[in-house]
Design a protein that fits this description.
With 498 residues, this protein is α/β, with parallel strands linked by helices. It is built from 17 helices and 22 strands. The two termini are 46 Å apart. The structure holds adenosine-5'-diphosphate (ADP) and magnesium ion.
Length: 498
């Protein structure tokens, strides 16, 4: 029996079809993966199912019942529950309060004792390990997510949609979440699990639907498909997944951080050397000081304690522009705020940061002949796909924007390359290309600091890995000395996680 039957669903935003004629069928009691790259239309489709958006066309049945006038209220009555990408919890309240808020039993408010007991029972039943009376504020992200799931269960949801729930978790937390899915399935629930991670899809789901460019392009029983086939469906062509990181030669120290404090309330400071010809990866759950590390290195934030040395010179007190001139190629984590002028032509974006570079300026005036030539060459070399160099940078796809930024920064030929969240929001093809560029820079002998929330990237690219937790480095070793498990424990703040 089908729990969800969506047929021919089309949804426009303006003239853009985020969903086109999508068929999406979920069997009762299964774990169904909705797989697709960023922007494929997954969240839109689920928002339609959950009654938050109205489809422009199409048919929807829940448990065989034709849904004519859909709404969030109706979705709830039909037994749907959704855990969104961004949690909607009140930190100052307890677990049980968060679970029952907006769903108080009886007319006369909540019977506290009963509510606490029910919430605790539910949590125990699914092995969530929560205490109903704990404050939400003190919980880890993984635990907060369980509170969100508990909310849907408490409301009696039978079909539970989770939108990219593992994106914010450590590897262990993600594995535990998959176990929870299996538990919920055993108790008869239907799970719709949205992800772009193929291994998770393979590990937990019974069947899978792949969206690409707003269309459903593939549907299969998970056991009949390989990870590689899924990747090809997701991207729409053969994916080249081989990446070679031959052992490198470590050169001189290019950048040193000496006892630098990156978070005011951190228990300690961080020290780190980056040599020529190596990639040092910073692993960690986001929000553990990655952003501060980036800003302090670039001089956007003052370095209050410790010192930063680049090529033998103490730059701790230098302003950003002077550091850039000393030689930093910088790929920022916030592309739109720091790396591109979205409303300006690509050409102007190639000038960005080069206004003081003597190659670009002749007798105080910008040398447009040089700029034009550089932009055209870079776009060709790095496969930046655009109509022409007059196109607004912001109208390029994420992958092409990032290639544009990388090509501009790489052409500066600096000895130190700071790369922050380089693949965020990009598709597999673009990610692979960017990985190759970074490895090429390593071969050229650049010193590279890679800050990334994607553990896969850290492992594929880094020579050494430092694990950041609450503003401190928990451990720093050669890549080969870590496993996904040992890093996962360190990311969660457990020392000695080997
Ligand atoms: N409210 C909106 N207004 C305009 N465009 C939107 C809106 N929501 C999503 N889109 C666009 O629709 C496409 C699909 O988005 P989404 O469903 O969020 O994809 P996914 O969840 O698969 O990453 C994207 O190109 C996105 O920019
Ligand atoms: Mg989404």
């Amino acid at each position: 029996m089908l729990a969800v039957e969506m047929r021919n669903i089309t949804k426009y935003f303006g003239s853009f079809a985020a969903n086109s004629q999508i068929d999406f069928l979920v069997e009762k009691g299964e774990i169904h993966c909705l797989l697709g790259e960023n922007g494929a239309g997954k969240t839109t489709l689920m928002n339609i199912l959950f009654g938050l958006y109205k489809a422009d066309e199409g048919l929807l049945k829940i448990d065989g019942e034709n849904i004519e006038k859909h709404s969030a209220r109706k979705a709830f009555q039909c037994g749907l529950g959704m855990v969104h990408q961004h949690f909607m919890l009140v930190d100052a309240l307890t677990v049980w309060e968060n679970v029952v808020v907006g769903n108080e039993p009886g007319k006369f408010g909540v019977d506290r004792k009963t509510a606490v007991r029910q919430v605790q029972q539910l949590s125990d039943n699914y092995n969530f390990g929560l205490s109903a009376e704990d404050k939400v504020a003190g919980l880890s992200i993984g635990m907060k997510q369980r509170v969100e799931i508990l909310k849907t269960l408490y409301r009696g949801a039978e079909i539970i949609i989770l939108d990219e729930p593992t994106a914010v978790l450590t590897p262990q937390e993600a594995d535990q979440l998959l176990d929870i899915f299996r538990d919920m399935k055993r108790q008869g629930k239907t799970i719709i699990f949205i992800t772009h991670k193929l291994n998770e899809t393979k590990a937990v789901s019974d069947s899978v639907t792949v969206l690409r460019g707003g269309r459903s392009v593939y549907h299969t029983a998970t056991e009949d498909v390989t990870v590689k086939q899924l990747a090809n469906q997701m991207v729409g062509r053969e994916v080249d997944d081989k990446l070679e990181r031959v052992p490198g030669k470590e050169g001189d120290v290019i950048v040193s951080l000496n006892k630098v404090r990156i978070l005011d309330n951190a228990g300690g400071t961080i020290s780190l050397d980056i040599h020529a010809g190596e990639i040092v990866g910073i692993a960690g759950v986001e929000g553990n000081g990655q952003m501060q590390l980036e800003e302090i290195l670039m001089g956007f934030q003052r370095c209050k304690e410790g010192s930063i040395v680049i090529k033998g010179e103490d730059v701790t007190k230098w302003p950003t522009r002077k550091r850039l001139q000393k030689g930093i190629s910088y790929i920022p984590s916030s592309r739109h705020e720091r790396a591109i002028l979205p409303g300006f032509p690509i050409l102007d974006n190639y000038l960005l940061g080069n206004q003081y570079n003597e190659k670009f300026v002749k007798r105080g005036l910008i040398d447009y002949t040089f700029l034009n030539r550089t932009a055209a060459e870079s776009m060709k070399k790095y496969d930046v796909r655009a109509v022409d160099e007059k196109q607004a940078a912001g109208s390029l796809s994420g992958g092409n924007q990032q290639k544009m930024v990388l090509s501009r920064e790489v052409e500066k030929n600096s000895d130190f390359v700071l790369v922050c969240q380089p693949v965020r929001g990009l598709d597999i093809g673009a990610i692979h290309y960017i990985h190759e560029i970074l490895l090429d820079l390593r071969r050229q002998g650049k010193a590279i600091l890679l800050i990334s929330a994607e553990l896969t990237d850290i492992f594929q690219l880094s020579d050494k890995i430092a694990v950041l937790y609450k503003g401190e480095i928990m451990d720093l070793r050669r890549n080969e000395e870590f496993t996904r498990e040992s890093i996962g424990l360190l990311m969660a703040g457990q020392k000695g996680g080997k």
